[in-house]
Amino acid sequence: MANTASAASAPQKVSLSRVLGPAHVWALGVGIVLVGEYTGWNFAADKGGTLAALIICWTIGLLYTSVAMIDSEVTSTVAAAGGQYAQAKHIVGPLMAFNVALYLVFAYTMLEVSNAILIADTIKSYAGEGFESWHYEGIIAGVIVTLAALNYRGVLMTLNVNFVITAVAYLAIIVLFFSVQPWSQGTVLRLGEMVTPDNALPYGWIGVIAGFHWGIWYYLGIEGTTQAAEEVRSPARSLPYGTMAGMITLLVGASLTWYVCASLMPWQYLGYTYYPLLDAGKLTGSKTLEYMMFIATILAALASANGCINDAARAWFSLGRDRYLPTWFSAVHPKYRTPYRSILFLVPIALAFAFIANLGQAITFSILSGVLHYTFMSVNIVMFRNKWPLGSIRRGYTHPFHPLPAIVLFILCVVTFFAIFLGYGAQLTAMVVFYIVMSLWFHFYRYRYVRRGEQFTMPWPKPRGY
Amino acid sequence: MWTTLANAGWAISAVLLLWMLYDWFRTDSTYSEDVLTSSREGEIEAVSEKHKI
Amino acid sequence: MAKYNPPEQSRALQWIDIIFVVAAIFLALWLPLQAGWAGVSRAIQKIDNPTWEALGQTPAQVEQWVKLGFADAAAAHDIIQNKFDYSIDWTQLVIMAVVIIGYFVFLFKASDKEYREVIDEKFNGK
Predict the structure, then answer these.
(1) Is residue C119 a part of any domain in this protein?
(2) Which of A27, A72, B48, C75 is deepest in the core (most CB within 10 A)?
(3) Shortest CA gap A151–chain C (Å)
(4) CA closest to B19 among chain A residues
(5) How far is it, in rounded angstroms, from Cα A33 to Cα A35?
């Protein structure tokens, strides 16, 4: 719960409360992402086969390691709510920042929607007869509104809850892994018989590339840790630490998940199911494991939706604070110290989409915004190093091998755009047209309400070259 | 059991939504808009992070 | 350079901005759903009277299918034979590339123009 005592007696100024530690950063990052292991990543197998899913798991892992490294450096220096939005504003410019904030709000709101749908789908698949669409929607509404209320009440409680449910969902993967005796193939697991030379890459290498689209889902959202920047006690230390720990957790989790699922299911089924880990639990024949994975699927989706509400609201809130959107959104609750108007504003939008979209569509929207966002990040870090070379400002963390991670990230983003084209090209184009319209609107109209010099809030020297 | 849970989902979301709307209304009428929107980016930077080498 | 003082925005205009943004978001997300663009070119390559062998499943794989509730090959047929078509539509690819590249070029150019004003006011104006 937020710090309530000091705020109770008519404050002059309110701000978000700084109460979080590295564990909360981890819970926010991993919490948002972990659901990807429970659903979504396996569609990469649909597109290219089981082996493709593993290749993608590690290649996209490289993409996200670059994201985490780059992000840690910039965020440990630009510590503000809105995360990459504030980074873009200080490094690239206002219009870029506006777009980045929209990517964030889109990616997280659609991810929240996917999670609510996933929970409802999971419950529906176990509920049997008598479970009407009224009930289905009741689950969706219950999830979205309850988590919004939790977020409304304070960030500390929100992320404490996230820590617990994320840890349980992660432990479930570990327990499943050890209970299928991974050291002795043939007992339960039969990798060699599920993945044969004939079916490992059924579409060849084009299938591997096409699968990149869903491979994003293994890790999408880990960059959300930066949204907490204004609420952690020591951003320069906690953010890099929490983000990197989160990335390692996820790489391990993703590999274990692949190993168990690939050893239990024919690839066609793996690419078809919405619940690869739950099905893996089922295939062990143990009811205990099956129910454990059932509960863990729901917990992972809850943790993800919870973190998404937190992040989307922070991004929306920062837009209001800089007058990119009406200042009305930049209100902070004097008692709970949360961006309460932004949280509330996004609830009906999330509900509306949860009722009209299906899981695959919602996930695709989220992925599209994510990839646009990562493309920005690869350019952003190069500009950051050029405008403020090492030594000109204090960085909480300096990532190694620059500019290699930026180049890797950029190339992988281009490949992913191509992968999305193989299947969702029209949707991607439509989405970019939306961003173009919004950019024109912002650049030629909305920007007149923005104070110029005040947007630059960091106590840095003048950037080089200006 | 699941249908009960789903009905509870509707009930809980209605209650919480009403509570949030009530709290929102109460907050907005108790505090002035200037106080509510007084948060500024970069304030923590000025306090805690000194960008000196 | 003179400090830029933005005009105050009236309540009504603030509401119009909010409504515009929300409408644009809904349109962008909803239109592709309605128009049915969110589709992948894939088709079921039908095999008449399928057997597990015809579908290319080994005995170990068949065992798992059965455990998953697919009693015979016919039940799993639609899943197994639902194949992707990865042939590339070059016109569409070019359109997409132009739109994305154009978007990013505009984004960085316009941002840079705005950014120079910000830096001028912050560092040179005083």
Answers:
(1) yes
(2) A27
(3) 22
(4) A149
(5) 6
- The torsion angles phi and psi of A336, rounded to 5 degrees, stand at -90, -15
Q: Which chains touch B (3 or more CB pairs under 8 A)?
A: A
Q: A107, A346 in Cβ contact below 8 A?
A: no
Given phi > 0 = left and psi -120 to 50 = alpha, else beta, which region is A244?
A: alpha
CA A218 to CA A58: how far, in whole Å? Answer: 10
Whether C53 and chain A come into contact, CB under 8 Å, resolves to no
Let me know: does A194 contact A265? Beta carbons within 8 Å.
yes
Report pTM: 0.92
CB distance C65 to C57 below 8 Å: yes
Residues 6+ apart with CB under 8 A from A459: B42, B45, B46, B50, B51
CA B43-B48-B51 angle, to 5 degrees, is 95
* Fold held by A26-455: Amino acid/polyamine transporter I (1.20.1740)
- Residues A112-132 have pLDDT tens digits of 999 999 999 999 999 888 888
Residues with Cβ within 8 Å of residue C64, at least 6 apart in sequence = A194, A264, A265, A266, A269, A283
Q: Phi first, then psi: what are they for A234, rounded to 5°?
A: -130, 85
Q: What percent of chain A has pLDDT over 70?
A: 98
CB contact under 8 A, B50 and A394: yes
* ipTM for this model: 0.90
If one counts the domains in chain C, the total is 3
- Is C49 part of a structural domain of the chain? yes
